[in-house]
Write a structure and sequence with these properties.
About 40% of the residues lie in helices and about 20% in strands. The longest helix has 16 residues, at about 15-30. The mean pLDDT is about 85. The protein has a five-stranded parallel β-sheet with strand order 2-1-3-4-5, with helices on both faces. The protein has about 130 residues and is α/β, with parallel strands linked by helices.
């Protein structure tokens, strides 16, 4: 039985869910040999519900082998993504950053942590980045 890479997807819920959906479609069509975990939180990181959500997200990040962050045009402004990157680093996950456009500003938390980068949102660049993580 082939080993399936478990990937947690971090993304800007309001602006980049179509990219997340494309990853999930690739996974469903077996273009990827991965087990992708997607757990969206449409709650402010400072809300009263945040601690419960952080606990669940922490568990899913911990269960994953890879942490893939989709870097869209507004990702660098997301408190949730900043927190998720920090949690992935804390848990020792392999970090993969995938830019939807080469010009997008990256969250500063992605620098200096040994992240593997895909500078475009294509199947080949994402596979290469994951394989190089």
């Amino acid at each position: 039985m082939a080993y399936k890479k478990k990937i947690f997807i971090s993304y800007d819920y309001d602006n980049d869910k179509h990219y997340k959906n494309l990853l999930l479609a690739w996974d469903a069509n077996r273009l990827f040999d991965f087990s992708i975990k997607d757990h969206s939180a449409d709650v402010s990181i400072n809300s009263t519900n945040a601690s419960a959500i952080k606990s669940v997200i922490s568990r899913y990040i911990n269960e994953a082998t890879y942490f893939l962050v989709i870097v869209g045009s507004k990702t660098h402004k997301s408190d949730w993504i900043q927190w998720e990157i920090g949690k992935a680093v804390e848990l020792g996950k392999k970090i993969v950053a995938v830019k939807t456009d080469r010009e997008n500003t990256s969250p500063s938390e992605l620098f200096g942590i040994g992240a593997s980068w895909a500078m475009s949102f294509t199947y080949k660049s994402i596979i290469d980045a994951i394989n190089n993580a």
